[in-house]
Amino acid sequence: MRKNSEGQVLLVVVLTMIVALTVGLSIAARIVTELKLSKQNEESQRAFQAAESGIQQTLVRQSDIGTLNAPIELDNNAAFSTTYVTDSGQAIVLNNGLDVDQAVGADVWLSDYSPVPSLQFLNPMGGGNPVDITLYWGATNQDECPASGSDTAPAIEVIALIGPISSPTIARNIYESAGCNRISNATAGSTVGGPFTLKGTIFRNSAQMQFGGNPMEDGLIMKVIPIYNSTVIGFQSASVPFPAQGSVVTSTGTSGDTVRKVAYYKSFPQLPLEVFPYSLLSQ
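Structure (tokenized):
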């Protein structure tokens, strides 16, 4: 009887030890996981801060800093490397592929930008010859008109300042989304051959830019204004490249095994809308 009692006590002790060990291991595993997550969050913050620091320094220097193989080391055991690319070429996408705000718009430089007023608007695109430019706009889901909300099809108002510099004139047109008929005398967009992809951004509509029935010539700058909805906007030249529109900085921050990448688009200062009088619409 005593042996049975001792056996029962031993069994209870063993079971208690197993339960205690299981609970202990569970708590230890949870603590290790929380410490690991805490370390990952800390490294993620350091990597993000390093990437932001790279953006700031690159905008000041206006050139690449470091490389992925030889990043710039910081005091907090983080590092960064950046690339600095001028936004120009035969294809451009405004805001680096982000929406252009409705009724606010964005500038498209057709001549050289300079912070010095006397040096602005030099070297018009095409050198005085007509330039065939295709306008792209509208995300693929923006196909409803009339409608309200994110799926509303946008129209695009384009107001161009055309040389000579000493006495420029205003040319303007409106480009309506395909299948919409909200604005009289607007140039209809087309979806034939679409959706269209330009520098990684997908567009629903395209239209050949015309002013008075003619391609762009002696253009200095354009104000491009979405109507009815904010939207993505891009342009492609058939021959000559667009002048610089700004710059794209991509910064890669690292801390431990964590990598954070930040992209920043810096456009040139926007000219006030008063420079472009006689806007067709003010919606």
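The first helix runs from residue 2 to 61. The radius of gyration is 29 Å.
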